[in-house]
């Protein structure tokens, strides 16, 4: 004797309801890839880990040498969720980077050589950092990403700081999609700089 069709439908309904409840109570592991923008190799690894690995999102460090290339990669992949890793320190002593804000506006955030503090000097930063300068720099990092996200889809994104003479123009080279892991060379910001050097 066969079972009643309603019994089977009820059994399927109960099973789906149990799975829904189980999934709502399940613990989910979210893998976020950090430090996007620090180096070209890190950018490639982060994108690969999201597209082909277990990572599901990433965090962008805007003041880093390869941040503009990272933003271009994100603009080409709008499906990748990302956040802004606000930072006031430079994680390496090999390629020192500074703030996005003009240095004369945020002197309390800079060390003796005019760059952001390294992590081992973080206590000194905490002592001398001014809240208004911290807010100014954090807003500059957020606004830079907002400008690039809303830029026209022409394959390039060059924030204002990328062409200033106060900062190495690593970001300009990054826009073109470099294939090496070393930052591009510094170049003059305008024609007057070239005339003076000639």
Give an account of the 3D structure.
There is one protein chain. The chain has helices spanning 5-25, 40-51, 67-75, 122-128, 131-149, 170-175, 191-197; strands spanning 32-36, 57-60, 82-84. It is mostly helical and 198 residues long. The chain has a single domain (28-180), classed as TIM Barrel (Alpha-Beta Barrel). The protein is globular and about 55 Å long. The N and C termini lie far apart (99 Å). Residues 9-13, 152-156 and 160-198 have low confidence and may be disordered.
What's the short story on this structure?
The chain is mainly alpha-helical and 198 residues long.
Labels describing this entry:
198 residues, mainly alpha, TIM Barrel, 3-stranded parallel beta sheet, 41% helix, globular, disordered C terminus
């Amino acid at each position: 004797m066969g079972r009643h069709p309603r019994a089977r439908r009820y059994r399927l309904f109960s099973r789906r309801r149990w799975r829904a409840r189980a999934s709502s109570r399940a613990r989910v592991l979210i893998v976020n890839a950090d430090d996007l923008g620090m180096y070209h190799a890190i950018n490639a690894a982060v994108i690969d880990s999201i597209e082909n690995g277990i990572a599901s999102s990433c965090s962008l460090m805007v003041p880093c040498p390869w941040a503009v290339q990272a933003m271009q990669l994100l603009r080409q992949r709008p499906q990748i969720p990302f956040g802004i890793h606000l930072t006031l320190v430079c994680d390496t002593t090999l390629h020192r980077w500074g703030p996005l804000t003009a240095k004369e506006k945020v002197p309390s955030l800079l060390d003796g050589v005019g760059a952001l503090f390294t992590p081992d000097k973080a206590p000194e930063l905490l002592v001398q950092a001014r809240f208004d300068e911290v807010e100014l720099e954090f807003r500059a990092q957020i606004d830079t990403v907002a400008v690039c996200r809303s830029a026209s889809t022409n394959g390039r994104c060059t924030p204002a700081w990328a062409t200033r003479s106060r900062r190495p123009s690593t970001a300009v080279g990054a826009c073109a999609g470099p294939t090496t892991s070393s930052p591009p060379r510094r170049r003059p910001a305008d024609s007057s700089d070239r005339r003076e050097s000639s």
